[in-house]
Structures are given as C-alpha cells and as structure tokens.
Write a structure and sequence with these properties.
By secondary structure, the chain is of the alpha/beta class. The protein has 14 helices and 13 strands. It has helices spanning 5-23, 60-73, 86-93, 113-121, 152-159, 178-181, 200-221, 227-231, 246-255, 265-270, 287-292, 316-323, 326-329, 345-357, and strands spanning 52-55, 80-81, 104-107, 127-142, 149-150, 162-164, 170-172, 192-194, 239-241, 260-264, 275-277, 279-280, 298-306. Strands 1, 2, 3, 4, 8, 9, 10, 11 and 13 form a nine-stranded mixed β-sheet that branches. It has a two-stranded parallel ribbon with strand order 5-12. Helix 2 (60-73) links the parallel strand 1 (52-55) and strand 2 (80-81). Helix 2 packs across helix 12 (316-323) and helix 5 packs across helix 7 (200-221). The longest helix is centred in the middle third of the chain and has 22 residues, at 200-221.
C-alpha cells in the first residue's frame, strides 16, 4: 500500500480519536515495572489503530520502505509515516503516552538527554532505542558542475556567521565566493541549500562539520574562536534553510547548477545520475568510507519505539522485527538499495535480541552520533 503523508495521517488520527472516544480514555497502560511489555501478536489488526511514525527526513525513506513491506507481508495495516524532522519528531514522540501520540520516531542523531527527560516527565518512560545503520552527510552539487575537494575548515570559513580577521577579532563573514576562501575552490558564489534548525542532519553537520572545521581554523591561525561562533551558520543568504524534504534540495540543485546542498548520503545514492558529492578532507562519501568512519561527516541513525504502546496499537514489535530482519537491514537487504549503510553483523544480532525482549532505555543518552 502506498503511503501518503497528509491524507493517511488525517485518516489515522480520525480513527484513533474515534477509538479513544469509545473507550472513554486516550491513555495507554504502562507495561509492568521491570518486565518486558507483552507482544502485540494477540492484538486484533482490525481494532482500528494504525502505527504512527514521525521523525527525521533522512530516516524517512527507511521507515517508509519498512512500513510498505510490513503492510504487504502481514495482516497489520500499513503504518502512517510522516517526515517532521528529528527535533519535531522527538517533541511529538515525547508529548505523552496514548493513541493520539506517535508510536515511533526516526532520528538522524541520538536522542539528547533533554529529550529523554522530556519523555520521562510526560510519562513516556519505556523507550526502545534502535540504532539502524550509518549515514554520511554530503556536500553535493549537480553532476555537470565542478567537482569539489574541500576541508572542514574551508566549509566553516564559507558558512560561519563570523570568522576571525587578521588580528583574530571576530567579524561578519566577508566571503561571497568559494575561491575567496582558497584559490583551489570554484569561482562560484557561495550558495548552499541545507536543512533547518529542527533537523538532526543539521545538528550533526554543525557538530561534525562546522565545529570540527572551526577547531581546524583555530589551530591554523592561533585565534581563539568562541564556541557560539563555531556553531553559528550565516544568515545573509549564503546558507538557505530548505525545509525537511531532502528530495526538494536535490531538485533545487538540478535547477540551480551553481549551488551546493547538504543532506544525507541516502539521497545521493538515489540520485547519483543527477548529483555528485564533494570529497571532505580528501575522503569521498562512499559506502565503505562511511561504514568505517573514515568519511569525517558520518553519523548513526536511530528509531525509537514507545514500549508502552506495544499490545495496544497492533504490530509495533512486529514492525521492528521486520526492520531488523536480514531482508531489510542486512548487508544485501532492501534498505541498502535505498542508501542505508548497515551496522556490523554482530551488532545487528545484539539489536535483534533487543527487539525480541523490547529492552528499554534505563538512563539518559550520553551523546554520540
């Protein structure tokens, strides 16, 4: 069954509201303390409840592919998947427990400690964390444009709101073309389309690309760069927030051949005939380089599930079992065709067991992409 965002989401919310109204309550009972929640195999697929998934635009192609396969292979309804961005998905997921809230969320970075605490304070106390694979953040342009080999320091000089002057005083970024930063770079206006502040891709790009680049510039110049300046992206038109739809950025690059875009590797893999990616610190964002961590702007991706909804909304555990099957996330699974970089086999085996027992998080995450 093909998934559509708005119509299916509206229909599912109507169904959930009707079901909640019949029961007189929208709350979902929590699983027993210290025990795994009961699986949903005994729940009736005809109960009217449909799995609702929100979150990262980068993870969206993977959660959607699994949802479509799950709907086709089982008697459960095809889950409704909505691209809200990592931050937006976390806010929806952590808003509370009940069928009016999402069952799962995708994230292109790990849940933060503050998001975990928000979940806990709103009663979302049983969360299953599932790393699903690796992704690289690419700097890309149209395939007919100039090839780019760039350092993270040069990326920061191009996109930072402020850069150090000759006397190390921080000043508004004066660079308007790439060649002003280094003669080896294209003589093109700096124009980069990228994700908005709600995006996990942007969070990871800032940390792994810009902040690391700022540290490189600080080491080169001997200038002290304030932490805020390391992470702040310019707002003078050189960087353009382009919403949570990475496919839209790809299309923009095709229509704007002098521009560059920032998005996840999976979109590069799906559009390799139209766009190309820059080498960063001399390393191309290729499958093996991302999996090994050699490509410098690499990160893990995650799916988070609400264990308190298992057994109430039919099919949640079964959906995760489909996700963690070799057919899906294995080395030759259908998710690799969509750009997923698989986890090592031993790690996948550990996570299959986590899904079997619905093992929940016991403390706030401690960083890590």
């Amino acid at each position: 069954m093909k998934i559509t965002h708005t119509l299916l989401l509206s229909a599912s919310l109507f169904a959930l509201a009707a079901c909640s109204g019949e029961s007189g309550s929208s709350s979902v009972p929590a699983a027993s303390e210290g025990s795994a929640p009961s699986p949903s195999a005994g729940a009736s697929p005809q109960s009217g409840e449909v799995i609702r998934i929100v979150g990262s635009s980068t993870v969206f192609p993977f959660t959607t592919a699994v949802a479509e396969s799950f709907g086709a292979r089982t008697n459960f309804p095809t889950p409704v998947v909505e691209s809200t961005g990592t931050g937006g998905g976390m806010r929806l997921f952590c808003a509370g427990v009940g069928t009016e809230t999402p069952d799962l969320t995708g994230a292109s970075r790990r849940m933060t400690a503050s998001e975990y605490e928000l979940c806990q304070s709103n009663g979302v106390r049983e969360i299953v964390e599932l790393p699903i694979g690796f992704d690289g953040i690419v700097v890309s342009n149209v395939s007919t444009g100039p090839e780019l080999d760039i350092s993270r320091g040069q990326i920061w000089r191009a996109l930072a709101a402020q850069v150090p002057g000759e006397d190390c005083t921080m000043m508004d970024n004066p660079h308007t073309s790439w060649s002003e930063i280094d003669a080896s770079l294209p003589d093109l206006r700096i124009e980069v389309f990228g994700p908005p502040p709600t995006s996990g891709t942007r969070d990871a790009f800032v940390e792994l690309g810009l902040e690391a680049g700022a540290e490189e510039v600080a080491a080169e110049t001997g200038c002290e760069i304030p932490a805020e300046a390391m992470a702040r992206i310019r707002e003078d038109g050189a960087w353009i927030d382009s919403g949570e739809n990475d496919n839209a950025i790809v299309q923009t690059l095709v229509n704007t051949p002098t521009a560059y875009g920032v998005f996840g590797y999976s979109f590069l893999a799906q559009n390799g005939d139209r766009i190309q990616a820059a080498r960063v610190d001399g390393v191309a964002p290729e499958f093996d380089a991302i999996a090994s961590g050699d490509y410098p702007i690499s990160r893990s991706m995650f799916v988070y599930a609400k264990a308190q909804h298992v057994g109430v909304v039919p099919g949640i555990q079964e959906y995760l079992q489909e996700f963690t099957s070799d057919d899906a996330w294995g080395d030759f699974g259908y998710l690799t065709d969509r750009g997923l970089i698989p986890l090592p086999e031993a790690r996948r085996a550990e996570l299959v067991q986590r899904v079997e027992t619905m093992e929940v998080m016991t403390e706030a995450p401690h960083g890590g992409h």
